[in-house]
Amino acid sequence: MQVNRYKKIKTCFDKKDKKIQCDKIKVVAVDMDGTLLNQNHELSQGTYEVIRKAQCNGIRFIIITGRDYKSTRMVLEKYDLSFDYIVASGAEIRNSEGIILNTIPIRNSCLIDIYKRLDSIPVMVRLCTNGVDFFIGSRNNMMQRILEDIKLFDMRGSDETIMQSEIFKERIDRFCCVSSLNEFLEKNVPIYKVYISSDNIEAIKMADRLLSDIDNIASASSFCNNVELTDIKAQKGPVLKEYVQALGYSMLEVMAIGDSMNDYSMLSMDFGMTVAMANGMDMVKSVAKYITKTNEECGVAYAIEKFCKL
User: Fold this and answer.
1) By three-state DSSP, how is residue 119 classified?
2) SS3 content of the chain, % helix, strand, coil (to 5)
3) pLDDT of residue 81
4) Which of 31, 41, 136 is nearest to 88 (CA)?
């Protein structure tokens, strides 16, 4: 028997759920990769048109992503749309003009502890700041790690083909190589996120276990082959709640949409509508109130049309 992938997760609603009406949603907070964007990391025409219509009807949109602001804007700046931004998984908030409203960096003491624990594990470690990623080690080693990372997440092909690609050039341009952690700390740059990745799933699991008991650090994953570390306060759910309430909205007026474990904190909270993508991780789908279509099927547009009064 065929199962309907787009059924409601819950067969009955609690009291708050019963109060939800389509015209109550005034804010849509949406993840990017695997959610808003298709497999080509672009906004489909159908999704663009629905968002445009929603904004014309007064719906406010917040991009809430693990990407940094620069990377986010590179994708979205060609579209005639307005967004607020919660980036780096919650470590930075910007308004629609791009002005920084708040940041939540990782403490240096935590960063030192993280780096020590990862020293002997074969993973790539990126120290993500505002628009620049730092790599500790030699430039040749950095280039090899970037190559492996692109093969893992972005494209296939020979080393030569990838190294001549625009994505490789862009990645190299955004990386800064330092010889040691002390050299990085001397720069006094706020670190928003530690991004750990590898094609060795066991190495990722080991890294996750070794880092699990560090105080004041939150761990999440966008994929099975990465771990993302932020300050404990820099998580999508709590940051989104605080931001929308500061703007004067209630939680019931918010629809949150995502697909991966770094969206878990917001989809498990009591926002008016929490929606997981059909292509999302099982744990994320299990806590969301609804499941929409996949990102390739314009699932964000589908959810907006279903739950927002347009």
Assistant:
1) coil
2) 40, 20, 40
3) 96
4) 31
**What would the two tokens of residue 82 be?**
């307005």
Question: Structure tokens of 93?
Answer: 């908030």
**What backbone torsions phi and psi does residue 227 show, to the nearest 5 degrees?**
-135, 135
Q: Which residues contact 220 (CB under 8 A, 6 or more apart)?
A: 89, 227, 228, 230, 235, 260, 261, 262, 264, 265
* Integer Cα distance of 306 and 308 in angstroms: 6
Chain-centre distance for alpha carbon 171: 18
Task: Count Cβ atoms within 10 A of the Cβ of residue 201 and give its class: 0-12 exposed, 13-18 middle, 19 or more buried.
Answer: exposed
Whole-angstrom Cα distance, residue 3 to residue 285? 15
Q: What is the pLDDT of residue 18?
A: 41
Q: Which residues contact 299 (CB under 8 A, 6 or more apart)?
A: 35, 257, 277, 278, 279, 292, 293
> Can you give the pLDDT at residue 14?
34
Spatial CA neighbour of 239 closest among 116, 126, 84: 84
Residue pair 172/213 in contact (Cβ under 8 Å)? The answer is: no
| 166-174 and 139-153 helices, crossing angle to 10° | 130
Question: Exposed, middle or buried by CB within 10 Å (0-12, 13-18, 19+), for 286?
Answer: middle
pLDDT at 171: 84
Which residue in this structure is represented by tokens 């939540």? 104
pLDDT along the chain (310 residues), means of 10: 34 37 85 95 95 96 95 93 96 97 96 93 90 88 83 82 87 89 94 90 92 91 85 96 97 96 95 96 95 96 90
Say what the pLDDT of residue 22 is. Answer: 57
